[in-house]
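COMPLEX REQUEST
Ligand: zinc ion
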Amino acid sequence: MKPYRFLMLLLLAASFACTKGKTAAAPPASSDAPSAAADPAPALTDMSPPPTFDANRAMQYLKEIVAFGPRPIGSENHKKVENFILSHLKGDDVEQDAFEIHSTEGTFPVRNIIAKFPGAKDGIIVIASHYDTNWPLRNTSYIGANDGASSSALLLEFANQLRGKKLDGYSIWLLWDDAEESMRLPWYDPESLYGVRHLADKWQNDGTLKKIKAFILEDMIGDADLNIERVTDSTPWLEDLVGQAATRLGYQSHFFGREGDVEDDHVPFLQRGVPATDLIDFDYGYNNVFWHTTEDTVDKLSPQSLEIVGTVTLETVRMIDQR
Ligand code: 1BN
Ligand code: ZN
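STATUS: Structure written out below.
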């Protein structure tokens, strides 16, 4: 039995004991709960059910995104994906951050899309994904099914889960950021992460940045063989909460078996003092062989992985709200 459900049953049993006039003892530790000695999940303090997430609908979005074909910045397909994302956010509170970049490859339009879901608490949790594919691979069949499409689809499904709900916790802003991918391969830091670098500056200048309680990046989260990395430059308390959320949901075997440092979209926020983490599976095929190749296709991915990352992210959000 998943530890989450087991704890829910214990809490229900305890509250039943109280109504019978007895003082309920603290629930004993679960004997069939997976071992989490190094990183125990804290006792649940609320009775709300685990987060829901429609992984099949997310998978459908993923397939629709890759069906547009390669989506490097400045391309027609890129514009189509922007419109696809916006078409699924009709009626939501959407901010668009559009600007131009000047790179050694030329001048390109860039657009970040932010959907805002208001919460009762003062503060913002940002959940982000890039949606572009590599410029250097623009003339190949490279579609970034895992790299860019999986996480963008995940965010579209988050929007469905958040829409119309009264959020008791912090506001949640979903960010589809642009021009993450490097203009050159191998990776070239000065010509990458354009979208988030622009947005982090903008939000620093207009005062938004200091309201952000956490920045959670999703990247390459669809691999059927899911191994989310412990990203060592992440903010420790936030990375720990992700691990605890995974343990609560019984998914800890998919988390933190590997660790490393990644130059990704969370970095400009980390550098400006925002607590940030990157949920990334950087073990895509043996030795990451599918990364940035035309082998990054839908057949390597699974809705179960979207479900795991989707629910762990939403549980992490709930734990941040209760912190
Ligand atoms: C992730 C997916 N990244 C690019 N596409 C960021 C990255 C850059 C990861 C360099 C590792 C090294
Ligand atoms: Zn990439």
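REMARKS: The two ends are 27 Å apart (CA to CA). The chain is about 35% helix and 20% strand.
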